[in-house]
């Protein structure tokens, strides 16, 4: 079975509900596995939601989101 895959070189979040600290940019993601870590309320879950929203924009309940990835 063939499965599609996605690879990101960078992610930039400009506006997303639940992201209180303004913009977030991850400009230099590697081609393999990237580990995102940080303290509570630093935006890890919001980043996961942003990636989900980018991959599945038609899912309901996403709110007003501005994403750009390359």
First-residue to last-residue Cα separation: 27 Å
**Backbone structural class:** alpha+beta
Rg over CA atoms, rounded to whole Å, is: 13 Å
Average predicted local confidence, pLDDT:
77
Count the helices. How many?
1
Q: Which sequence of SSEs, written as H and E, runs from N to C?
A: EEHE
**What general form does the structure show?**
globular
Helix content, binned percent: 10-25%
Describe, in plain words, how this protein is organized in 3D:
There is one protein chain. The chain has 70 residues and is of the alpha+beta class. It has one domain. It is 17% helix and 17% strand. It is built from one helix and three strands; from the N terminus they run ββαβ. It has a three-stranded antiparallel beta sheet with strand order 2-1-3, with helices on one face. A hairpin with an 8-residue loop joins β1 and β2. The model has no long low-confidence stretch (mean pLDDT 77).
Summarize the structure.
By secondary structure, this protein is α+β, with helices and mostly antiparallel strands.
Output the keywords.
alpha+beta; 3-stranded antiparallel β-sheet; single chain; 70 residues; 1 helix; 3 strands; globular
Task: Outline the fold blueprint.
Layout: E1 11-15, E2 24-26, H1 44-55, E3 66-69
Antiparallel strand pairs: 1-2, 1-3
């Amino acid at each position: 079975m063939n499965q599609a895959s996605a690879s990101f070189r960078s992610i930039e979040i400009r506006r997303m509900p639940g992201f209180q600290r303004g913009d977030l940019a991850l400009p230099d993601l590697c081609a393999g596995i990237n580990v995102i870590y940080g303290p509570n309320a630093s935006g890890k879950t919001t980043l996961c939601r942003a990636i989900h929203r980018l991959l599945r924009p038609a899912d309901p309940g996403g709110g007003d989101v501005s994403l750009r990835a390359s």
